């Protein structure tokens, strides 16, 4: 997730209230092609400072700034969000699609089934390595250029796998494709935080996280018949086409959204145009970071949070077990449905339909719960609800998860109709998405300024479990059988069931005793206080100016306007709360 940058919320809110449609808009091509467009308003604005090296002009977003990602039109925000979700979906689709062709790959290269299964593990392992590189690079150079480079490379490597002369080449090229494509894991979340406020982030988060969950389930469904009828190379061809379409559309439609980079380039262009010294306010207040500092922070801090913050550690283990279980099913389902139930390979991919239906239901439930969260947020004058308000879906999913896994484990007898055990996979898919979305939002709200590091540590553990689980699935099922083998993950899920419930009840007390969570809360308290003071000062100044003007022209008119000013103040405070990205916790 991208760092949360301070902006002048009061001015932005007033602009949206008083002249909602007055903000000038750039054509989309200008947003995509130029990151430093200077309007007359920007050029003529009276920036704080005197334009010298010692006291440069401090550049920030204007109240009605068309280049501010938070002030983009809603249709554009959602177009970008859905494209980011599609990029995430395509890479998770690729993670499982080739598993549908495992028998064909085994026959083509004459290798063991264990080596073929390692392809999925290596692909998922790249998800742990790639973001550690792409996340800091996006902080230095922005989201757009990282997207263009990495997604171009992942498409190239995906296409190159079709010509693989041996299994080693196939595994290496697939690993590289995943490593570059994993930029979507860090980039998509960063883009969402760039454009949306805390209150409105829920639906966007569901879109960019919910859609990619469908990828691993959709891969075998879409590719099993293709693998049987055309071979594994056609499966890779389909994956390459999917990546290429997303890449080409993204080049045309995705602009830069990272405010620190945009403001740096704006300041540099203003300096070049005027000869005075301009600097981004964010760089001055937060300090300009070198590449070494950014990489050190990105590499070290996630591990600190992972092992020293119990909230991050326990929830990361919980999510990793669920994630590993999902990828374990790619090795388990062929055993259960092809070997035990004697389904043909061409239709065995349909066994993932139950999981996909459950994931869709999980997204739908999360959308409904987001409405509950917004009602709570709207009842607060400043700030936003405590992070624990995000945990309700996880609490529900924690109960349904072991039920679904045990259900699947003990109803997959061949004599029991297949639809019965599919109900268990529906519950698993529902629980998976509900818990994941809830926990991600909880970590973001609880760690805010350190959210990127908390999520990075979480992602590493998830990817390691996702890579490891498929490797021992076949030996485990051979030794324990399809019932007890399927029950192992159910027992693990049952052991983790109390986690969301414990954090819901004791989370505030735990966070107060966690170094980074407590420090995040203190910083946000201070920023919220400053935001409140700025809003009050701006309102007071406007009242004074309007009262003076009315008094000079007509004292009675000024008296008549006073109730309107009071109503305006209340509205402004409410909108500041809704738009606030730096809440009181």
UniProtKB/TrEMBL annotation:
The chain crosses the membrane at residues 75-95, 115-134, 146-165, 171-192, 204-228, 240-263, 303-328, 348-368, 389-410, 416-440, 447-472, 484-504. Residues 80-511 form the Major facilitator superfamily (MFS) profile domain. One of its GO terms (cellular component) is plasma membrane. It is a multi-pass membrane protein. CDD domains: MFS_Tpo1_MDR_like. It holds the Pfam family MFS_1. Residues 546-563 have a biased composition (Low complexity). It is found in: Cell membrane. Signal peptide: none annotated. GO terms for molecular function: transmembrane transporter activity. Keywords: Cell membrane, Membrane, Transmembrane, Transmembrane helix, Transport. Residues 535-545 have a biased composition (Basic and acidic residues). Its main location: membrane. SUPFAM superfamilies: MFS general substrate transporter. It comes from the Eukaryota. Belongs to the major facilitator superfamily. DHA1 family. Polyamines/proton antiporter (TC 2.A.1.2.16) subfamily. This is Major facilitator superfamily (MFS) profile domain-containing protein. It comes from Aspergillus udagawae. The lineage of its organism: Eukaryota, Fungi, Dikarya, Ascomycota, Pezizomycotina.
